Task: inverse folding
């Protein structure tokens, strides 16, 4: 019985570590989120010295997905306390935020300062296609397989094609494509 408990703990530890270190794509976060929007951070509260228990007052700028927030309104967001680290947003900055409800709370599941061409990118995301990532340690090794309901990507997560691509259904196949800007300006050629 004790060995089963030890095995359960080890599996849980592995899942937590893998979820923090395995490559993830922005489209995966977007498709899993209940809400996707941009917002300006107005206020941060929480116990002094405890970055894991922060609450943010934000002014929502644009809403791309979901019904829990509206443009030009102020809402409260909660940082998630995960083993991957605290959710930290800086005052007076704009962020793209993916969030989900947890009871009455709207919790941040992913965030970053608004990247260039963000709006154009999320319009290309196709949530009918899943992204299955097989991690590799080689930063120069990347491959793609098309499938009927997913793109299978082998990547380290640091290569240009992965960071500047998305998965979209074309002719009944989910296919990995590059954003037009990546094709034109970044010398990010798919091979």
Result:
């Amino acid at each position: 019985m004790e060995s089963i408990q030890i095995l359960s703990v080890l599996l849980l530890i592995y899942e937590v570590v893998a979820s923090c270190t395995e490559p993830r794509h922005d489209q995966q976060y977007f498709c899993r989120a209940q809400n996707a929007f941009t917002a300006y951070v107005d206020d941060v509260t929480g116990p002094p010295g405890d970055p894991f228990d922060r609450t943010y007052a934000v002014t929502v700028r644009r809403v791309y997905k979901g019904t829990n927030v509206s443009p030009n309104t102020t809402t409260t967001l909660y940082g998630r306390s995960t083993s991957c680290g605290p959710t930290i947003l800086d005052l007076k900055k704009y962020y793209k935020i993916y969030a989900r409800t947890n009871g009455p709370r709207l919790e941040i599941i992913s965030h970053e300062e608004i990247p260039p061409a963000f709006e154009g990118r999320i319009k290309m995301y196709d949530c009918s296609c899943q992204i299955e990532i097989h991690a590799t340690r080689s930063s120069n090794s990347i491959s793609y397989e098309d499938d009927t309901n997913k793109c299978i990507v082998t990547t380290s997560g640091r290569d240009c094609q992965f960071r500047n691509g998305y998965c979209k259904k074309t002719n009944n196949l989910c296919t990995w494509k590059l954003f037009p800007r990546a094709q034109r300006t970044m010398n990010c050629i798919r091979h």
